[in-house]
Design a protein that fits this description.
By secondary structure, the protein is an alpha+beta fold. Helices cover 32% and strands 23% of the residues. It has one domain (2-35, 45-134). It has 3 helices and 6 strands. Strands 1, 2, 3, 4, 5 and 6 form a 6-stranded mixed β-sheet that branches. It starts with a helix and ends with a strand.
C-alpha cells in the first residue's frame, strides 16, 4: 500500500500533506516579508513561525501535526517518509541518528518542499521560521 501511495504521488505531483505544509510556509513568508527589517532598541521583531508538532507513536515512530486555521491537523507526507504500518501505528520511522528525531523528519519535509518553492525568501535560512516541537 505504501508503494501504491508513492506511485500515485508521482502521477499527481505532490501529496495533500505537502500542499498543506507549502501553503503554511508561503503564508509565513508573505507575513515575514512585509515586516520592517529595522527596529528600535527593545522593540520585538514580529514574525510568523511554522510549527510542525510531533507526537510519539512508538520509540522510533512519530506522527506529525500542523495547525491550520486554529485547527490541529495530521501532517501526512509520504514523500518525506510517512508510512502505513499495522495496528494503527502509522507514522514517520526514524532509527538512530546523532541529533533530534523530530528535526530529522522536519528536515526531510523541508527537503521535499524545496523541490516546489524557494524557502529562503525573506529569511537567512529556513530554520529561522520553520520549527519542530514535541507534543504528548
Amino acid at each position: 500500500m505504501n508503494k501504491q501511495r508513492l506511485d500515485d504521488i508521482k502521477y499527481i505531483g505532490m501529496s495533500h500533506g505537502l500542499e498543506t505544509l507549502i501553503s503554511q510556509i508561503q503564508k509565513a513568508q508573505q507575513f515575514n516579508s512585509e515586516q520592517p527589517q529595522t527596529r528600535r532598541a527593545g522593540e520585538e521583531y514580529r514574525r510568523e513561525i511554522v510549527n510542525v508538532y510531533f507526537s510519539w507513536v512508538t520509540d522510533n515512530r512519530l506522527m506529525a501535526h500542523i495547525i491550520v486555521n486554529n485547527e490541529l491537523l495530521r501532517l501526512v507526507i509520504p514523500e518525506a517518509g510517512h508510512r502505513l504500518y499495522a495496528n494503527y501505528k502509522d507514522g514517520y520511522q526514524v532509527n538512530g541518528g546523532g541529533y533530534s528525531k523530530p528535526f530529522h523528519i522536519l528536515a526531510s519535509m523541508v527537503y521535499q518542499a524545496k523541490k516546489h518553492i524557494d524557502l529562503n525568501i525573506g529569511v537567512g535560512h529556513w530554520q529561522d521560521f520553520i520549527k519542530a516541537s514535541i507534543i504528548s
